[in-house]
Amino acid sequence: MRTIDKRLKVTRRNFLKSGAAAAGVTALATGTVVIDPNGAWAMSAKTLKPDTMVTLVRMARDLYPHDRLGDIHYARAIEPYDAKAGADETLKRLIEEGISGLNQAAQAKHASPYAAVAEEGDRVALLKSMEATPFFQKIRGDMVVAVYNQPEVWTKLGYEGSSAEHGGYIHRGFDDIDWLKDA
């Protein structure tokens, strides 16, 4: 009679399946997984509400719009807010109340939350109406660094990085940015 080995063989496929399952369980145990409604990005959130994170990503894109950049770059810029809000109750309150106010304004004008307003111009008008608030100033000020301080963004926008260690830009093609010449 033949004996059959019923132990689970460790193959690449089984290893990857078990690793993905463990990662999912770990993500659920440590916080909420926030997934973009369009499936372009995902992040974990322990402190801020998932809707808040989605709205912040949309807001960052509206503040610094670039057709060349995917939403993943804006999500990476927003993700640190969750940990910062966990350590700073004042920041958490500022963000949650700011998003709540933004959503209320969007509901009043467009009968939907800010992130669901279809037209970019309508969302920008909502942002302009609150640009004097501390919430808006905080997000705008942080995003100018968080969005543009990603090496992946640099390559998409044509920035070649620091030139000081290579002798400066004069001898490295300071005027070779095609998109700047077209402006």
Automatic annotation (TrEMBL):
InterPro entries (UniProt xref): TAT_signal, TAT_signal_bac_arc
Protein's UniProt name: Twin-arginine translocation pathway signal
Pfam families: TAT_signal (PF10518)
Organism expressing this protein natively: Skermanella stibiiresistens SB22
